[in-house]
UniProtKB/TrEMBL annotation:
Top-rank taxon, per record: Bacteria
InterPro entries: 2-oxoglutarate_synth_KorC, Pyrv/ketoisovalerate_OxRed_cat, Pyrv_flavodox_OxRed_cen
Entry keyword annotation includes rRNA-binding: no
Name under which the protein is recorded: 2-oxoglutarate ferredoxin oxidoreductase subunit gamma
Keyword Phosphoprotein belongs to the record: no
GO molecular function, one term: oxidoreductase activity, acting on the aldehyde or oxo group of donors
Alphabetized PANTHER family for the sequence: 2-OXOGLUTARATE SYNTHASE SUBUNIT KORC (PTHR42730)
Keywords tagged on the record: Oxidoreductase
Pfam families given in the database record: POR
Membrane-crossing segments per the record: none
Location of the Pyruvate/ketoisovalerate oxidoreductase catalytic domain: 13-175
Naturally occurring in which organism (per UniProt): Desulfoferula mesophila
């Protein structure tokens, strides 16, 4: 693993943005990495702005802020527009087209579509599993950096319900990222 890996997820309340950061952070701790996580959100109970920032490193982390995320998971157009320019050329933006209608083709980074909401509806008839699909996709993108099975184990520990469906949703996201 490189000295510092930054992951930002942002969207709106109720999408599981904070849980996504918690799962990745927990998995990294299990792998012996150092982890910081910051979260921020609007004052609304649901539907307002939410952001989760996770920094992973084998070394001491000097700052918990993600200034140039290696991975940015965009789950709303507002989030995409706010953070797209922070992703460096070798970074990846993972976006859900159900919420990010227009992407900036001029960006130098890689942009990967993940229709997590649609996949959740197609496979489970419920959008609630979008987050587990996104975590599976991230597990694929993080191959070589983090262990897929440890990410899945952390997901199942942090989200205590619907283990079979969350496991299946995780695999759907993993397989989608070919």
């Amino acid at each position: 693993m490189k000295d510092r890996l930054e992951i930002v997820a942002s969207g709106f309340g109720g999408q599981g943005v904070v849980r996504l950061g918690q799962v990745l952070g927990e998995a990294a701790v299990k792998e012996g990495l150092r982890v910081t996580m910051l979260k921020s959100h609007g004052t609304e109970m649901r539907g307002g702005y939410v952001r989760s920032q996770v920094v992973l490193s084998p070394k001491t982390i000097d700052s918990p802020m993600c200034e140039n995320p290696d991975f940015f998971i965009a789950l709303s157009s507002a989030a995409y527009n706010r953070f797209k320019d922070t992703v460096p050329e070798n970074g990846v933006i993972l976006f859900d087209p159900a919420f990010v209608e227009e992407i900036d083709e001029k960006l130098a980074c890689s942009q990967r579509e993940l229709p997590a909401k649609q996949l959740a509806m197609d496979h489970f008839d419920r959008p609630i599993f979008s987050n587990s699909i996104a975590l599976g996709a991230m597990a694929k993108l993080l191959e070589g950096e983090m262990d897929k099975e440890i990410i899945l184990e952390s997901l199942l520990e942090i989200i205590p319900k619907f283990h079979d469906k969350n496991r299946e949703a995780f695999q759907v996201g993993y397989d989608y990222m070919k």
